Structure formats: C-alpha cells, structure tokens
Amino acid sequence: MPSSYSSSRTSAYRPGLAWFSLLGASWVFGVVTLGAFTTSIGAGMAFADWPLSNGSLNPEGWLSNLAMFAEHSHRLFGTVMGLISIALAVWLWKTESRRWVRNLGWAALSIVVIQGILGGKRVLLDSIEVPGFEMTLGQMLRIPHGILAQMFVCILFAITASLSRRWSEVPSDAASFSPGLRRLAVTATVLVWVQLVIAAVMRHNQAGLAIPTFPLTPEGGLLPSRWDFGIGIHFTHRIMALVLSCALPWLIFSIWRSPAATRGYKQAAGLLLTLLGLQVSLGVASVWSARDPYFTTAHVIVGACLLALTFSLAWWTHRDVLTTRDAAR
Questions:
Q1: What is the pLDDT of residues 271-287, one digit of tens each?
Q2: Which of 145, 169, 193 is the last residue of a domain?
Q3: Is 223 within a domain?
C-alpha cells in the first residue's frame, strides 16, 4: 500500500525547505569552527561531564573562561545542529518525492546521532588508557569525530544543492558534463577528503609540529633525517598538499574549458582556486607560528570549505545523471 504521504510529495522547488537546508549547511561551519578552536587550544576536557557542562546547561563562568567558552559553545552549536537535522530529515520524508534525497536526510541525521555519541564518549572515556598507545580511549575518539564531521558537511551540501531552484529548473536539454570531467571531479573530492582524514590523524596525535620548519626540515633537507609515526603522518600531509596543488587546478581549468560550464560553475571554480591558495598559506603559517590556535583553526575551516566546494562541483556535474534516473522511475 502506498504511503499516505506519497500524494503530497514532490521534487519541485520549495523555497522554505531549500532555505532551511541552506541554514543547516551554513550552521555546520559554526560547529566545525568551534570544534577546531576547542582542539587547537586543548579545551576538549574543559568539562569532565556530558551531556551537561559541570552539571548545567549554563555553567558558571563559561562566558569569561576561553576554554570553557569554546567547549560549551561547541556543545550548544552541536545541539542546535542536531535539532536542525531532525527537522530536515522529517521535512524531507514528508514532502520530498525523490527517495535518494530522503535517504540523504536520514544519513545526515544518523551521522549527527553518531557524532553526539562520539563527542560524549570522548569526554567520559578520557581517563581510560589503551595499552601501547599514548592517547587514551577518549582521545582516540576525536579522530572519527573529526572525520565524520567532514562527511556530514558533504551530505548537507548534497541536500542543499538538490533542493535548490537551479537544480529543479535547469532545462532537460542543457549541455552535460563529460564522463571524464565527472571522474576528475570525484577523484579531486576523494583526494581532498583523504587529506582531511590525514590532517585529523595528525592534529589529534599532536603531530602538527613534528616537522617544525617549512619548506625544508630542521636539518636543511627535503626529507626528514629520522622517522616516527608523527613525522610520517606530518610528511604525508605535506605530500598530499602537493598532490592537491596539482589535482585541483587541473579540475578548475577543466571546468573553465567545458562547454557545459555556465558562468556560475566557472565562478565556483575560481573560488576553489582562491581557497586552495589560502589553505596552503594557512598551513605554512600554522607551522611558522608554532601552531597558533587562530591560524590552525582557520586552516581547519578553510579545509572544510575546500571539501564542500569541491564536492559541490562534483555533485553538480552529476545532476543530469541523477535527474535522468529520477525521470526513468
């Protein structure tokens, strides 16, 4: 028997839902910013309890203490993000006719739930030692917590793009991007995501200054004179930055040359080039400043923006594929 909501579901542009989705895609950067700043200043254990902070929703002194402010604000923003995700998933379920868009809503909500659990367990399990590792069990949970945050950003941007007016109103006979460009866009997105995973492992293993100089090592060479896990993950992060400095311009110039690229696509590609330059500069500044928390936080934020924009370009290159599949059903 068909669902009672089937008759009221549509894939047409709905301004309210589209703008609400955009709110969620914007709000997540507040969560990421506060999470990155909390980690940068080492304030993850400003409160030893969870879900409350010192047993309260409004802990004493949190507005005047920087560590408490960073951690509690991150929790508050995360809570609001959870409420937005619940509302978005339910709204999509009730009104959206495209099953894959509804599934994206449930995926976003699932990640929010997992993120909340990981964030809480990171605090509650902080004192549990893990044999053979320098990090405690709670500290280890910071790594999947950071990785899932990047996946969540991509899902929210996929939903927002798919609900936009342009997605709904582009003519069916509009020029399509070539399969080669689609593959290049997906490859670039995967490379950016891998780099952010490497960065999360490096950051939470306190390896951001494992090689404290740039571009050469302290010994004046291109390669470290000794190796351990911290130096290895830090050096891998630098190598991936070099790879992305080639892959992303390749994608950008391919979009500029594509007959299917509208003015909006080309402007987005230009913004991607700007973000790439800014991200590299912030990475260098983070090392030269001995990991100043404001530089490192900005580095994380721009990294998330870089992933969001690269993913959005890749998602848009597949618009005709997705819409054709919807029409065939």
A1: 999 999 999 999 999 99
A2: 169
A3: yes
